[in-house]
Amino acid sequence: MKVNSAYVGAYMDAITFEALWKRLSKEKQERLKKFKRQQDIVRSLVADLLARTMCAEALSCSMEDVEFEYNEFGKPLVSGDTPCYFNVSHSGDWVVCAVDSDAIGIDIEQKSDIDLEIARRFFTSQEYRYIFGGDPITRKDRFYEIWTFKESYIKAVGKGLSIPLQSFEVQIEKQEYGESLLARIDRNSSSDNVWFLKQFNMNADYKVAICAKERLFTQTIHNIDINRLSL
């Protein structure tokens, strides 16, 4: 497993944008032209190139040889017979991508002031108690822990919103050294439905969660200079 992040910020100069844009496939360029907000274009552009670069490294091929296809729920997959799974997410100023030899999901969320009571609607009763059962100071952090865990699981499974958020439960297991939180999802008590999760505190404003079939998690999220994606 490998996980990389890229800082996109609120502004990208025209020269950098043009260099990255030229590396996109024509199909991707046409998709991005439909976006209305420039920041959405920039995030999606960087996400695509970050994923292609990481998949190319995993497959020992050129970025141009990496082709994506989509399942019936719209999840992108690497075409070909060699197993290479990836997932991307972006929020605020950051884009993250995870690549593995088996199904993988990743989610990043910028923490904001929201009504935490929406947890009552979208989370299980046990998850709700986890959020509100401790110190009030920790409630926002715990909310985003559960939220990103759930999103990363849905993205790993690749069935989109056809999986209701309340239909499965995040089981918090333990805190690792360095405050990385570990959890699991065990649906129907079947080993085929057991997924493992790990949380990263990238900085004070963001939560990142990864969902995978094995516990062999990376220990570090590597930050990539976006200029490397234009080479």
Plain-language structure description:
The longest helix is centred in the first third of the chain and has 22 residues, at 38-59. 30% of the residues lie in helices and 27% in strands. It is of the alpha+beta class. It has a single domain, classed as 4'-phosphopantetheinyl transferase domain (Ribosomal Protein L22, Chain A). The protein has a five-stranded antiparallel β-sheet, covered by helices on one side. Helix 5 packs antiparallel against helix 6 (139-157). A hairpin with a 7-residue loop joins strand 8 and strand 9. The radius of gyration is 18 Å and the shape is globular. It has helices at 14-21, 26-32, 38-59, 118-122, 125-132, 139-157, and strands at residues 2-7, 68-70, 76-78, 85-91, 94-100, 104-110, 171-175, 181-186, 194-203, 206-212, 222-223.
- CATH homologous superfamily title: 4'-phosphopantetheinyl transferase domain
Radius of gyration: 18 Å
CATH architecture: Alpha-Beta Complex
Describe the sheet with the most strands.
5 strands, antiparallel
Helix content: 25-40%
Beta-strand share of residues: 25-35%
Low-confidence stretches are none
CATH topology heading:
Ribosomal Protein L22, Chain A
Number of strands: 11
- CATH hierarchy, class: Alpha Beta
What is the N-to-C order of secondary-structure elements (H for helix, E for strand)? EHHHEEEEEHHHEEEEE
Q: How many angstroms does the end-to-end distance come to?
A: 23 Å
Enumerate how many helices there are, as a single number: 6
Q: How many discrete domains?
A: 1
Overall pLDDT score: 91
**Structure class:** alpha+beta
